Amino acid sequence: MIQKKKAKKLSPSGLFDHRFEPLGEINGISFINDSGSIRVGDTWTTLHGLECGKNVIWIMGGSDSGIDYGVLESLVYAKVKGIVCLSHDSGRIQRRFQRESPFFVKALSVEEAVGCALAYGSSGDIALLSPACPGFDLVDNFRGRGEEFRAAFVNFYNNLP
Hints:
The structure is a single chain. By secondary structure, the chain is an alpha/beta fold. It has a single domain (about 20-160), classed as Protein-Tyrosine Phosphatase, Chain A. Helix content is about 30%, strand content about 20%. The chain contains five helices and seven strands; from the N terminus they run βββαβαβαβαβα. The protein starts with 7 loop residues before the first strand and ends with a helix.
């Protein structure tokens, strides 16, 4: 259950939209918009830079055209609590990370992905949208995906009891 007293908005950095952009917190779960990370190397840099334990709910996926996610395995194992895959075709990604991630959930919209992060997350977790691939599967591009992520966060935030 989401409690309003445990929600707070972080001020956006305004420096780089869709690149490690803090959106705020709900129930102690921090939401970060890194939708601009459309390559595996970008996501590697983001995950590597997070100073955290195994408490990241990684929202990833998109137009997966045979991308090699292998370089992310050790970071996923060390830092990712669970994966929310934002894609119609999530099977290959799930098979790739099923050993490294305690849970794997498929979401067919950005709003659903934010809901999954809230459902599976707990205080101190980080819900990180960092797709590691282009967004042509469910959205037009990284900007559209990032804007939808912001809007979904604001929607959940504004509708807290």
